Amino acid sequence: MRYLPLFLLSLGLPLAGQVKYLAQQKMFVLTAGDVTYAVGVNEKGELQPVHFGGRMMRDGDFRAAHSVSGWASFDLAATTTPKEYAGAGGGLFVEPCLKATFADGVRDVVLKYESHQIQGDSLVIVTKDITYALTVALHYKVYPQGIVRKQAVITNGTAGVVTLESAQSGSIHLPPGEGYAFTHLYGRWAGETQVARELVQPGLQVIESKRGNTSHQANPWFAIDGPERATETSGQVWFGALGWSGNWRIAVEQTPHQQVRVTAGLNPYDFAHPLKPGEKLETPPLYVGYSKEGFGGASRAFHKFQREVIFPGGGAARPRPVLYNSWEATEMNVNEAGQAELAKKAASIGVERFVMDDGWFGARDTDRAGLGDWFVSKKKFPNGLKPLIEQVKGLGMDFGLWVEPEMVNPDSDLYRAHPDWAMHFPGRPRSEARNQLILNMARNDVKEYVFKVLDDLVSQNEIAFLKWDMNRNASEPGWPEVAPADQKKLWLEYTRNVYEVIDRLRAKHPKLEIESCSGGGGRIDLGILSRVEQVWTSDNTDALDRLKIQEGYTLAYAPKAMMAWVTDVPNFNGRSTPLRFRFLVAMQGSLGVGNNLNKWSAEDFALAKKMVSWYKGVRGTVQTGKLYRLLSPRSADGFAATEYVAEDGKQAVVFATLHSQQYGRTQPRLKLQGLDAQAVYQVTDIDGKFTAVLSGAAVMEYGLPVALTGDYAATAYTLERQ
Ligand code: DGJ
């Protein structure tokens, strides 16, 4: 009968404001666009999740949180009652958010509500252990795009050291039940952002990185769809992502009591974080959202949030320029004349930014030497970088440079001077990968060195853009200079210091833009994406593989930051696809060109010029529009299509690709989405061969006739609203 009186108390008014405290119900109601996230204080003073899903309109619809009785003598209420931020203690057997050991050896944390503060769209709820002065402040912020940001700040108010053994950003709880499915992204070098989907089972399903960076192996994004199964266009999807580029973990759990919950944050693997009295630990942010419009609706909401909130400059940021990168053309054989020649050719097709990749510094003729010595090679550039930069600028482009600042080759002056700067355990082997070691960025002196070399480079040369690479993961993560009890802090401090260097560099050079690369897509997450304009999606530039890599990528992340280059064939798999196909695949993100332009024919230049110019006419829509994944490249018939609709609805762009035609079959009409049924559009294909004036209803209900033939065929359309 608790529910009824509260229901009667309601005035039936829509919820005002974005964060609200309902005193009677002891309930926090967070409204983020069409999404409501509600958490209450139960009769025991514990914070208990109440609702995460579609928007609730009436205060009276919320019933006060109440703990759930235990199950026999085995599952105490600590386990059966959903906890907003569960301390490992009091008989908790589900995944904790916080696990800690106090100075006296006590290993029991039970958190209860202490106080709260609401400020506009933000809420802080302070919880405290029942006995010790260990507090956890839960920070929430709501965004109109339908996203809630969660973060925990753990403070040691005791007089002794408290060692944290697990510090999660938070959990979400789905409506009790079974039959949920878990979608996530997995991969490896050259095969990133592959899509996996599996039934949520009793027990734990874990995705994680133990590699010191975000990783190719798994990405810190998840989506859970309900027992009714979501599709690309319909059904409930709960999703989220961590803003962290170090070791992370996402644990999807179905408890014995049919409670599905997702707990995400710092990876407890090799984690021990001693907090001295008064010290705090701020967890990475966890961003969560909900959509009733399937995976398409979920990703459109998340993309919009990323573009407007996460990406540097937000909604006001300019479109990504068309870029040329020298890597696949010249590898490390760079010099002034050769790069200037490529720059001239790149400018002739409309490229706006010329990026010189690896090989310009130290003794970098092969990957065996040079990393760490960030000084322009006198042999390759006797007059420094300035003459090349001047030529690039004279051609109307800006200049970008590749760096890999966290790394060192044993064959380098830096390593000879500071062998202790590389991560290592004294007296034990240091595993090399690509002949390189990883610097211990957790060290202050290393961080300052890295900042200085980058600052000097950017201060002394007109560098508009850095491609920041990281070509190996951490091994032998020793930090012998600090006390043994503090050495595991390396994982956290490493990432924090990488962020600090980027933040300081950007603050000092506000026009500088950065690309995050880690041997392709090894460092793509919302932490790095809040600091860089773009990411290198994969070293695999085979256009066919790219279709799937890009599809997985866009499930989680907005296409604006997704760099996609056109490169030479035969490519990665020994496969050759037509230049047109390669362009039309790469144009579905932020376009780059990485070909050896010295080998191009006049026809190649003419086609590239046409493609780049067409792309410039649609890139606003591709980079900042709403993405509809119309047909998946994972489908059996190999016919794939994407559609981008400008936020103002004035333009739509459609890309269609065919892997290989069989039996002379034609493609089904392509039904578009997200247009105004009443409006009329001028529809034109990229070749200007198909033009028609069609209503939104016609292209959405009847569809667009696409007639691709042969292998690796591709086309594109624009729809201009009349
Ligand atoms: C790995 C990157 O992903 C490539 O694009 C290129 O920059 C190489 N490193 C250079 O060593």
What's the mean pLDDT score?
Answer: 96
Report the β-strand fraction as a percent range. 25-35%
The CATH class designation of the largest domain is Mainly Beta
Shape: globular
Looking at CATH, which topology of the largest domain would you report?
A: Beta-galactosidase, Chain A, domain 5
> How many helices?
14
Q: Major sheet, described briefly?
A: 10 strands, antiparallel
Q: What is the tally of beta strands?
A: 36
What structural class results from the helix and strand content? alpha+beta
Instruction: Report the helical percentage.
Output: 10-25%
Number of domains as seen in the coordinates: 3
| End-to-end separation | 58 Å
Radius of gyration: 27 Å
The ligands bound in this entry are:
(2R,3S,4R,5S)-2-(hydroxymethyl)piperidine-3,4,5-triol
Describe the structure.
With 722 residues, this protein is of the alpha+beta class. The protein has 3 domains: 68-310, Distorted Sandwich (Beta-galactosidase, Chain A, domain 5), CATH 2.70.98.60; 314-539, TIM Barrel (Alpha-Beta Barrel); 630-721, Immunoglobulin-like. The protein is built from 14 helices and 36 strands. The longest helix has 23 residues, at 602-624. The radius of gyration is 27 Å and the shape is globular. The N and C termini lie far apart (58 Å). The model is unreliable at 1-17 (pLDDT under 50). It binds (2R,3S,4R,5S)-2-(hydroxymethyl)piperidine-3,4,5-triol. (2R,3S,4R,5S)-2-(hydroxymethyl)piperidine-3,4,5-triol is lined by residues 327, 357-358, 402, 469, 471, 517, 519-520, 536, 539.
